[in-house]
């Protein structure tokens, strides 16, 4: 019986201390409408890790670039990842890890110079 009680206490401590890690994640979704030539999200701040998931709709006339950028404290935006997604497809980027917490943002840009007719989304998750 002591063993079961000790295990229950240990398990509850793991749950209590692990829960804040998951609660600190944040996400946002950027939408590129068909009449836009590009779009950038606002920043999610003070996170070390991030990833992006880009969706390009079936109705889109062309491919879209999904871009993940990071800015260290006091620094400018630096591209960490760029995905090309065909119409009617989704691409999940790999997780990007930084040693210093900073700001993250995502962008969407149809392939070609000042092109439109793309409906796409880019979801940023940071933790």
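Q: What amino acid sequence fits the structure above?
A:
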């Amino acid at each position: 019986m002591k063993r079961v009680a000790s295990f229950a206490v240990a398990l509850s401590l793991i749950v209590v201390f692990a829960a804040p890690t998951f609660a600190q994640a944040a996400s946002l979704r950027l939408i590129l409408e068909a009449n836009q030539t590009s779009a950038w999200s606002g920043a999610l701040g003070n996170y070390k890790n991030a990833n992006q998931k880009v969706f390009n709709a079936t109705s889109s006339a062309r491919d879209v670039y999904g871009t993940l950028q990071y800015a260290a404290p006091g620094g400018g935006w630096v591209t960490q990842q760029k995905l090309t997604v065909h119409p009617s497809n989704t691409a999940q980027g790999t997780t990007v890890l930084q040693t210093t917490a900073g700001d993250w943002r995502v962008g969407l840009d149809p392939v070609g110079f000042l092109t439109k007719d793309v409906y796409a989304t880019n979801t940023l998750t940071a933790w």
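Q: And what stands out in the fold?
A: The radius of gyration is 19 Å.
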